[in-house]
Design brief:
alpha+beta; six-stranded antiparallel sheet; elongated; 27 strands; seven-stranded mixed sheet
């Protein structure tokens, strides 16, 4: 397998990669919690002089920026991000992408642990606050009845029975006790909501933290006023209601949502972690004739490594001696082990099954195939799909709209609502603020892209980004190159026929004479004849006086006999009459085989038929694509007869034969001109222009570096079924993204009006702020959970 470096394997100092007159850097960003956060950072970066493009990903917590190094620098871009109110640091020079992932994992683990503690404190405080609120609820009924309070009434009666003295405690005392329970939650557990909201306000922005801070802050300040000046309000005819327990429950439930969301986000990068975890920690090398075990990072190109049965191969290299069967399924998705012997390439992190061998290391660290795959997947997970733009546009105005709706809700309830109008207006406005969830919109697309690209890597399908994934989901036409894609790409002798009573005794002698001549030829079919003769043990004298007739064939002296191997035109030039072989040659050609005539001393000796066998899975893959409603086309430079035969064998809808590389490009454009979304599957150098022209270039990973670089999707194995897996995964991913966006939009579109009280006049239904907090937590978690279903995708 040959893979070109997917990104420069240079130290990460500023994570830059020169691209002509522009450079690119990736900067970790902290503090983003919703689409409004990432959107604000991205808009600020895009407006920065010298920045050509910026992509801020909420899921990965990073900003990828293409910039003009003559106008700005990574350090200046870090300051630009910080100016928006979020944290940013350049990674150290020695940190690579995998180390950054480990750092992110540690940060997420710390965040999860912190959220657990805060949620635990909040939920205990919430339960205690509800118990303490019971006497107040009996004395002063709430403006908005809370079902949770009704559930707690039996608890209150039990407390009264066990501690009758509580009946004599004044309402003011209960309010101060509730205040004492609320202060740690607001000042510690939920403190980050307020600090982040203030930071956003200072930078002329608003996000999810703004909604939570305004909602809970207004309820807390109202309750604080009622607590401190309760007697004054009572004297003026205003019932001193407090909403401390509501504030605690809101913060507690939102923290629960954040905790579940953080755990789910951690699972989205599971595929990369599993790939990294495949590497062995040590390698056994030969030094001065002795086997020495060294750490993996001490391995260097040129080292000779010993691999025993049941061990993982520590790095890429070439087998020196020994044979084994190696399981490469972790990279290619191919379940069958691959036989390895001297001269064969082995890939780091693959599993050695039942043999022992020595190999020489050729690539280590960031240059290995596994590292390249990990980098490609990380780049893909940090990219955005075009469908994300809709969510980004809505998120940009979402929070200001919700704040306006909350103000409108308060005014309408205050002016037209039943008494106590002011309290009902406050409760409804807080409910609107709390139920609104920009998080779901921000997570809808990136979570699905992250899980999908990771799952694809496990299946041997490498997708270069969200845009390629979305385009692949819309493909309705797949164009295959024939050789090496639908066929094995290795011509083989499939039949040898001798002329009865001719100059050779049997097909073994025929192959021996033909192979002796073809050993001196560079034609691809010559190798097939030589290989077939070797397998049969057919040996003849060394050829002399070799002559190649371009476009016709070759001839030479073998053991004193003049032997010619070539097409019918060669026979005619030499005055050889094939006789009955002509009909047999026509029959073989109609079956997609290439007939080669053999003449000895001017007499027809026989025919050798060479063919490129069709891959066993080609027909099944084409059938699967047709069931998906995809038109299949085969392009090839081969003759029409051969192409048609292969097309019939695999069930191709349309065959285009005898085309040069430029002709392939023209055919792709013609299909696109018909309004089709075209995917091109190929593995050769002459496929690269067509792969680049297609809407989705799918490169076979066993092919050339150029083709892989041109493809938006790379298949790590040559099985045509991998093409089906890639397109099916893309379609499933787009379906999940649409489900996520539908849920996010419907949730907010329905939840906000209900929270505002639109159903109250007709049904009396009114949500409480606590219900809104629970709904908000469920909303974002449900989106991430839905995306995680892609981990179970099977082609």
């Amino acid at each position: 397998m040959t893979l070109a470096p997917l990104t420069p394997a240079t130290p990460a100092a500023d994570q830059t990669a020169a691209t002509g007159t522009s450079s690119e850097c990736t900067i970790p960003v902290t503090g983003m919690t919703c689409a409004a956060c990432s959107g604000r950072v991205q808009r600020t970066l895009e407006q920065t002089p010298g920045v050509r493009a910026a992509n801020v990903n909420l899921m990965t917590g990073s900003a990828t920026i293409e910039y003009d190094p003559g106008s700005t620098s990574p350090g200046a871009l870090v300051e630009t991000i910080r100016a928006t109110g979020y944290g940013a640091e350049l990674p150290p020079a020695e940190v690579d992408g995998e180390s950054l992932l480990e750092s992110q994992d540690r940060a997420r683990a710390e965040e999860t642990h912190d959220l657990k503690r805060k949620f635990g404190v909040s939920i205990v405080a919430a339960v205690l606050a509800m118990i303490v609120s019971m006497p107040l609820a009996e004395a002063v009924p709430s403006a908005v009845p809370d079902p949770l309070m009704h559930l707690m009434m039996p608890v209150n009666r039990a407390i009264r029975a066990l501690a009758p003295w509580t009946a004599g405690v004044s309402p003011g005392t209960w309010r101060y006790l509730l205040l004492a329970l609320t202060l740690p939650v607001v000042g510690w557990a939920g403190r980050h909501f307020y600090t982040r909201a203030w930071a956003a306000f200072r930078h002329h922005g608003a996000d999810m933290n703004t909604l939570v801070a305004v909602g809970t802050g207004s309820a807390f300040l109202f309750s604080l006023a009622m607590t401190v000046a309760g007697d004054w309000f009572t004297a003026h005819g205003i019932v001193p209601l407090v909403y401390y327990e509501v504030v605690i429950w809101i913060i507690g439930l939102i923290l629960l949502g954040n905790l579940l969301e953080s755990r789910a986000k951690g699972q989205t990068a599971g595929a990369i972690r599993r790939l990294i975890g495949l590497r062995p920690a040590t390698a056994r090398v030969t030094r001065d004739g002795q086997e020495v075990e060294i750490p993996l990072n001490a391995l260097r190109p040129g080292d000779e490594v010993v691999v025993r049965p049941g061990e993982r191969i520590p790095a890429d290299g070439t087998v020196l001696d020994g044979t084994s069967h190696v399981d490469e399924s972790m990279l290619t998705g191919e379940p069958e082990p691959v036989t390895k012997g001297p001269g064969d390439a082995v890939i780091g992190a693959t599993f050695n099954r039942n043999g022992a061998f020595h190999f020489r290391v050729t690539r280590v660290g960031a240059d290995t195939v596994l590292s390249q795959i990990i980098r490609l997947v990380q780049q893909a997970q940090g990219s955005k799909a075009p469908i994300q733009r809709l969510a980004d546009r809505i998120s940009a105005v979402f929070v200001p709209i919700v704040l306006s709706l909350a103000v409108l809700t308060f005014v309408l309830w205050f002016d037209f609502g039943p008494e106590p109008a002011a309290l009902r207006a406050l409760a409804a406005a807080v409910t609107v603020l709390i139920i609104a969830c920009p998080c779901a919109m921000g997570l809808a697309v990136p979570t699905a892209v992250m899980v999908s690209t990771g799952r694809g890597a496990e299946l041997g399908v490498l997708v270069k980004g969200g845009e390629a994934l979305e385009r692949a989901a819309r493909v309705d036409t797949v164009v295959f190159d024939k050789t090496g894609t639908l066929t094995e790409g290795r011509p083989a002798v499939v039949e040898a026929v001798t002329v009865p009573g001719g100059p050779v005794h049997d097909d073994t002698e025929l192959l021996a004479l033909a192979a002796a001549v073809e050993r001196l030829s560079e034609h691809p079919l010559a190798e097939a004849i030589v290989e077939a003769a070797t397998e049969r043990g057919a040996v003849a004298d060394e050829a002399r006086e070799f002559t190649s007739r371009t476009g016709h064939g070759v001839e030479a002296l073998v053991g004193g006999r003049r032997v010619a191997v070539g097409n019918r035109a060669l026979m005619e030039d030499m005055g050889v009459h094939p006789g009955a072989l002509t009909a047999q040659a026509d029959q073989l050609a109609s079956e997609g085989r290439t007939p080669m005539f053999v003449a000895v001393d001017g007499r027809a000796a026989g025919l050798i038929a060479v063919a490129d066998p069709v891959k066993a899975s080609s027909a099944g893959a084409v059938a699967r694509l047709r069931r998906l409603g995809i038109l299949t086309v085969m392009l090839t430079g081969d003759n029409r007869r051969t192409a048609d035969q292969v097309g019939r064998a695999v069930g191709i809808d349309r065959v285009v034969a005898e085309v040069l590389p430029d002709g392939k490009l023209v055919e792709i454009r013609r299909l696109q001109g018909e309004g089709r979304v075209v995917a091109m599957v190929g593995d050769g150098l002459n496929d690269a222009p067509a792969l680049a022209q297609a809407d989705v270039g799918i490169a076979i990973g066993t092919g050339t570096d150029v083709a892989i670089d041109a493809g938006a999707i790379t298949l790590m194995r040559g099985d045509p079924m991998a093409t089906v897996a890639a397109l099916a995964l893309a379609r499933r991913t787009l379906g999940v993204i649409r489900q996520n966006l539908f849920w996010a939009f419907v949730y907010n579109g329905i939840g906000i009006p209900i929270a505002a009280g639109v159903l109250y006049p007709a049904t009396g239904l009114l949500l409480t702020p606590t219900m809104a907090a629970a709904a908000m937590a469920i909303s974002s978690v449900s989106v991430v959970t839905n995306s995680l279903r892609l981990k179970r995708f099977a082609a």
